[in-house]
DNA sequence: GGGCACGCGCGTATT
DNA sequence: GCGCGTGCCC
């Protein structure tokens, strides 16, 4: 396989330097690192040191002189993963190696490649990358232009369909006939129109980055050949998450030497719904004959009980490559299982449990809040926890949520920057032409569109002509003239070296009236948005100019900045993949919620198996303590529903599970915990009839566990309380502005302007005048 | 053109 | 139960 040596092999030292890093590896990891040539599948179970093996392998490739840093293609899915890998390789080799230019996400690498070969895709090399928002706006226009009823056939849906096709590497002419019925039989046609429009705009969407490169490789042997030679070794992280387009791209590039090492875990494939094909990893040995399959099975994260519980659940899946995780760790605590009356009770119990864990209970060590995570199936489950934690003053952070660069105010501001840099950016112009309100509504905007189209020019240019022809009047005309004037001026300023781009950004936000818009906004979000704009300007400082910044942002959507202080993490199971916490709570294990009814309805057994892998991911995040819970009743879209324990609970091996006495059902009695307006008897009967519940009761009988009910909040933060007086105006991160109506211990009762009356812990609010705007 | 009221739909999420 | 989007009215 490693036939043709590169030109500089002699210099690259056949005699490898000492490789002390190899001694740090276990036998399987070492095998995966040393099997440098030919196809390798590294099946790395949860917590088995996958990143360590992967980065050491790269270090070894460099150290043995097999490849220079720029001859290694290493692909990840997220920027975070790419960053981590870079940092670890740097540490391994002691900064001796300059950055690896081809270590990055699929998308980042494809952008680089596509800029070099843009003309082969009918683009100019300075093409712009549209995000989801731009994409949908473009499709909306197409749908309108085609006189399609937007209500019955929303742009979102079309975007989803086209995205799905692109994930499968289908260009409009390759969409199979079986899919022709999509979008009222017009899917393929609209797809072709959309692609044509993108070309006109010299733009691509995320899916195109892969799709264009696959097409180029398939149709230009010389280009493909060049990169096959160049990328001597290929490494792929999270291979189970690859979609068809990514798979084809990899197979094309690895087609010559087959030096491809894919790392992944079929049991952690949880992105089928967005195009990932578990089949890619299951088929690896067929795709790459002679592949070595190396299993990383020694787990360094979790106790045997946790591993056994996870493995019990996942063993119910059929299509698996199969792994058996083992550990040298002490037995530890069993996975704990507890049922609650309803979702609020579940949140209350977890809140109290966390507080006692901080102090250390039941013979366990004390946990710091940073060591605790709550992993939910769906983000709406987070609300119960947020509400509860705010009430008891338990610090928490929500991971995920809208990313910084996806926030409205950031996208607006960036649209202004884009216009300054390239006034022909029609999508940017559309976004901000009437933000802030300039009296340029649909009608005025239509006139601009018509004028631009008639002259075959950009919207900015069209707007100028429209004004020159007196096609607009009144306030709108004056405001538009001001905006156009501004765009011209900012563009000129961008070219002046004496004005820094940071200053320019401030000037743009100021002169456009955008900052003022939020300053005059009385809603509770406004201060936060202004804060975000400040952060945006600060982020600019790290770049040479606006153009460089915009390019960076189009590919990177990071959400790093996190407040100081110990906090419980709350996130979805999906967001938790790749993370680990000593203690993990897994609430909401109820059939229909988890496994999700929708997943099962839409994808049947396949869907259920993916949900089960999600359960596996959840349990294996825990190092020392995993607590699974479910509620008998839950409010779903405002309606109370009785819930059955998840079928996954029945799959937990009994000997590794400890059933805790459910306080709401054993100690407190039903009546006390029953929410108003539901049929207590009916829901109780349902819960009682489920196998999971019966077994739980049986086990609880064997080994009753008493719940220590300790009083909480013994320490009152008097200083925080003393800072407020009744009637005072305060600001709360979640609830916005309000006035203090009562003070009680360390809590304040506040009548919020939007959120109504709430009891909140004093240190969670600030005096309203302290807000920086 | 902006503000309000009504109706619908509601998952997980990266680039 | 809530938020978003549309449509109607001023």
UniProtKB/TrEMBL annotation:
GO biological process, one term: response to radiation
Keyword Nucleotide-binding: yes
Binding-site positions, ATP: 44-51
Enzyme class: isomerase
Sequence similarity: Belongs to the helicase family. UvrD subfamily.
One GO cellular component term noted in the UniProt record for this chain: DNA helicase complex
Positions of the UvrD-like helicase ATP-binding domain: 23-303
Protein EC: 5.6.2.4
GO molecular function: 3'-5' DNA helicase activity; ATP binding; ATP hydrolysis activity; DNA binding
Protein name, per record: DNA 3'-5' helicase
Taxonomic classification: Bacteria, Pseudomonadati, Pseudomonadota, Alphaproteobacteria, Rhodobacterales
Catalytic activity: Couples ATP hydrolysis with the unwinding of duplex DNA by translocating in the 3'-5' direction; ATP + H2O = ADP + phosphate + H(+)
PANTHER family named among the record's database cross-references: ATP-DEPENDENT DNA HELICASE SRS2, UVRD / RECB / PCRA DNA HELICASE FAMILY MEMBER
Annotated SUPFAM superfamilies: P-loop containing nucleoside triphosphate hydrolases (SSF52540)
UniProt-listed InterPro entries: DExx_box_DNA_helicase_dom_sf (IPR013986), DNA_helicase_UvrD-like_C (IPR014017), DNA_helicase_UvrD/REP (IPR000212), P-loop_NTPase (IPR027417), UvrD-like_ATP-bd (IPR014016)
UvrD-like helicase C-terminal domain mapped to chain residues: 304-578
A Pfam family reported for this protein in Swiss-Prot or TrEMBL: UvrD-helicase
Domain of life: Bacteria
Role, per record: Has both ATPase and helicase activities. Unwinds DNA duplexes with 3' to 5' polarity with respect to the bound strand and initiates unwinding most effectively when a single-stranded region is present. Involved in the post-incision events of nucleotide excision repair and methyl-directed mismatch repair.
Keywords: ATP-binding, DNA-binding, Helicase, Hydrolase, Isomerase, Nucleotide-binding
């Amino acid at each position: 396989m490693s036939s043709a040596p590169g030109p500089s092999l002699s210099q690259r030292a056949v005699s490898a330097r000492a490789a002390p890093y190899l001694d740090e590896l276990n036998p399987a990891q070492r095998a995966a690192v040393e099997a440098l040539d030919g196809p390798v599948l590294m099946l790395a179970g949860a917590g088995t040191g996958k990143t360590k093996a992967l980065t050491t392998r790269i270090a070894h490739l460099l150290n043995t002189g097999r490849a220079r840093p720029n001859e290694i293609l290493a692909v990840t899915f997220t920027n975070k993963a790419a960053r981590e890998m870079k940092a670890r390789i740097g540490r391994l080799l002691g900064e001796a190696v300059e950055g690896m230019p081809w270590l990055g996400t699929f998308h980042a690498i494809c952008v680089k490649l596509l800029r070099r070969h843009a003309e082969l895709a009918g683009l100019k090399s300075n093409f712009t990358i549209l995000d989801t928002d731009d994409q949908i706006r473009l499709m909306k226009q197409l749908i309108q232009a085609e006189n399609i009823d937007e209500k019955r056939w929303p742009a979102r849906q079309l975007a989803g369909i086209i995205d799905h096709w692109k994930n499968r590497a289908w260009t409009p002419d390759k969409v199979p006939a079986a899919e022709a019925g999509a979008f009222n039989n017009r899917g393929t046609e609209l797809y072709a129109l959309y692609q044509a429009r993108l070309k006109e705009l010299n733009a691509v969407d995320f899916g195109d980055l892969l799709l264009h490169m696959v097409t180029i490789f398939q149709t230009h042997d010389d280009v493909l050949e060049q990169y096959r030679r160049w990328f001597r070794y290929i490494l792929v992280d999270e291979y189970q998450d690859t979609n068809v387009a990514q798979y084809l791209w990899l197979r094309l590039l690895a087609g010559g030497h087959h030096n491809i090492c894919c790392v992944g875990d079929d049991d952690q494939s949880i992105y089928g719904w967005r195009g990932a094909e578990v089949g890619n990893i299951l088929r690896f040995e067929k795709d790459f004959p002679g592949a070595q399959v190396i299993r990383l099975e020694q787990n360094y994260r979790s106790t045997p009980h946790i591993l056994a519980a996870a493995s019990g659940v996942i063993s119910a899946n059929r299509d698996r490559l199969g792994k058996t995780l083992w550990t040298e760790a002490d037995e530890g605590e069993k996975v704990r299982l507890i049922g609650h009356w309803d979702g609020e009770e579940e949140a209350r119990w977890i809140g109290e449990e966390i507080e006692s864990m901080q102090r250390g209970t039941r013979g366990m060590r004390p946990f710091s809040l940073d060591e605790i995570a709550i992993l939910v199936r769906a983000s709406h489950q987070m609300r119960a926890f947020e509400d509860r934690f705010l009430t008891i003053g338990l610090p928490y952070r929500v991971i995920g949520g809208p990313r910084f660069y996806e926030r409205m105010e950031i996208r607006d501001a960036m649209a202004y920057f884009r216009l300054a840099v390239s006034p022909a950016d029609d999508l940017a112009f559309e976004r901000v032409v009437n933000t802030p309100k300039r009296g340029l509504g649909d009608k005025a905007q239509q006139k601009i569109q018509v004028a631009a189209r008639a002259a075959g020019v950009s919207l900015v240019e069209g707007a100028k002509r429209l004004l020159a022809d007196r096609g607009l009047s009144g306030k709108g005309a004056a405001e538009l003239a001001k905006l156009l004037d501004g765009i011209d001026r900012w563009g000129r300023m961008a070219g002046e070296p004496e004005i820094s781009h940071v200053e320019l950004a401030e000037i743009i936000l100021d002169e456009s009236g955008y900052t003022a818009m939020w300053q005059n906004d009385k809603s509770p979000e406004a201060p936060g948005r202004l804060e975000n704009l400040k952060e945006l300007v600060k982020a600019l400082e790290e770049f040479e100019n606006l153009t460089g910044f915009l390019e960076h942002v189009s590919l990177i959507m990071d959400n790093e900045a996190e407040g100081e202080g110990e906090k419980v993490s709350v996130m979805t199971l999906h967001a938790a993949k790749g993370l680990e916490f000593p203690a993990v709570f897994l609430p909401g294990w109820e059939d229909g919620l988890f496994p999700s009814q929708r997943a099962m309805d839409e994808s049947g057994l396949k869907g259920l198996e993916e949900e089960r892998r999600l359960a596996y991911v959840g349990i294996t995040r825990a190092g020392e303590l995993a607590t699974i819970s479910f509620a008998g009743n839950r409010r779903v879209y405002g309606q109370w529903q009785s819930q059955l324990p998840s079928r996954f609970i029945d799959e937990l091996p009994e000997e590794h599970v400890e059933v805790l006495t459910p306080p709401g059902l054993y100690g407190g009695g039903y009546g006390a915990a029953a929410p108003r307006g539901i049929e207590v008897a009916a829901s109780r009967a349902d819960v009682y009839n489920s196998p999971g519940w019966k077994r739980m009761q049986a086990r609880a009988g064997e080994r009753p566990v008493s719940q220590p009910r300790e009083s909480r909040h013994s320490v009152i933060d008097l200083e925080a309380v003393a800072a407020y007086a009744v009637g005072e105006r305060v600001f709360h991160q979640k609830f916005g502005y309000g006035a203090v109506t009562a003070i009680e211990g360390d809590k304040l009762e506040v009548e919020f302007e939007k959120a109504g009356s709430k009891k909140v812990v004093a240190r969670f609010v600030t005096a309203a005048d302290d807000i920086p705007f």
